[in-house]
Amino acid sequence: MSGTQAIRRAVAVLEAFGDDRPAWSVSELATAVGLNRTTVYRLLTALESVEYIDRDAAADTYRLGSGLIALGARAQRANPVRLRARPELEVLAAGTGETATLEVLSGGEVVILDEIPGEYVTSGSQHIGSRWPVYATSTGKAILAHLPPEELARVLAGPFRLLTAHTLIDAEQLRVCLAEQRRAGYAVAAEELEVGFVAVGAPLLDARGYPVAAISLGGTRARLTDERVPAIGSLVRAAAGRISHELGYRPDSPAGPGNAVA
Predict the structure, then answer these.
(1) Contact indicator for 16, 24 with CB cutoff of 8 Å
(2) Helices H, strands E: what count in the chain?
(3) Helices 37-49 and 4-15 sit at what angle, rounded to 10 degrees?
(4) Do 190 and 62 touch, CB atoms closer than 8 A?
(5) Looking at residue 126, what is its pLDDT?
(6) What is the pLDDT of residue 256?
(7) Packing angle between helix 171-184 and helix 149-156, nearest 10 degrees?
(8) Which of 75, 175, 178, 259 could form a disulfide with 145 if both were Cys (CB 3.0 to 4.6 A apart)?
(9) H-helix segments, the chain
(10) Burial letters for 213-235: b for 16+ Cβ neighbours within 10 Å, e otherwise?
(11) How buried is 18 (Cβ within 10 angstroms: 0-12 exposed, 13-18 middle, 19+ buried)?
């Protein structure tokens, strides 16, 4: 399709910017994305014209622009899952003091789509747009537990990285864990992503029974103790059930693609 290559190159340029590298010079960015300097400069100039990129003239570097902030905000507001989940997230955060999040699957990661911070300084608040390994998060495991077998198999093919001493990186052990958490109706990630951090998540299912997202409550191990987790799990599972109902899910409907885990 005419113009596809230019679009893909522009997307590659935008995706090169991240928390660990918020600013690039033209030469460094060209090397990072594997394009020549002239092409990257032209792409940056075009993106700058619509405020998707900002140039720092003094440092001769580029960073993401305000146009992307506005575009991302519109995308958030237009997301039907976010609109339905937001009231439940607010109730969960207010009732427990912990941070409530809405996350979606993106490849081998989950991305925070919305968040209501808890009342505690150490409530585990993250930034919207943050990405985390799917296998080490409660939301990721809640989604994986309800994926169709073929999709689950692709994710479990790995590779997995040990993030803490508690991270499950063995595919078969993870599969057993997912089956248990599916039966419970909620998933737990206890210090698997970060030492001292515990989160409890549950899936949001659409009319087909497919896990389109997941919600969670997260906080410190000192507050989310083994004794408290079941109560938190019940709250998150119930909230996820109400959101799923609004998305068209009915437990007694015929099994859809997300209703079986191998």
Answers:
(1) yes
(2) 9, 8
(3) 80
(4) no
(5) 65
(6) 46
(7) 140
(8) 178
(9) 4-15, 26-33, 37-49, 66-78, 80-96, 138-144, 149-156, 171-184, 229-246
(10) bbbbbbbbeebbeeeebeebbeb
(11) exposed
What is the rounded average pLDDT of the residues 240-244? 96
CA atoms within 13 A on the CB side of 89: 24
- pLDDT-derived band at 253 (thresholds 50, 70, 90) equals low
Residues 172-220 have pLDDT tens digits of 999 999 999 999 999 999 999 999 999 999 999 998 899 999 999 999 9
Beta-carbon contacts of 121 under 8 Å, excluding residues fewer than 6 positions away, are: none
pLDDT of the residue at 122: 57
Task: For tokens 């909620």, name the residue.
Answer: 186
DSSP letters for 4-23: HHHHHHHHHHHHT-BTTB--
Q: Distance (Å, rounded) from C-alpha 56 to C-alpha 63?
A: 8
Residue 250, amino acid: R
Closest by Cα among 258, 246, 77 to 178: 258
Low-confidence winner among 85-99, 154-168, 235-249 (lowest mean pLDDT): 154-168
- If phi > 0 it is left, if psi is from -120 to 50 it is alpha, else beta; for residue 164 that is beta
Q: Decide: helix, strand or coil at residue 189.
A: strand
Rg of the chain on CA atoms, in Å: 20
Dist. CA 217–CA 240, nearest whole Å? 11
Instruction: Report pLDDT for 255.
Output: 47
Cα–Cα distance, 96 to 225 (Å, whole number): 13
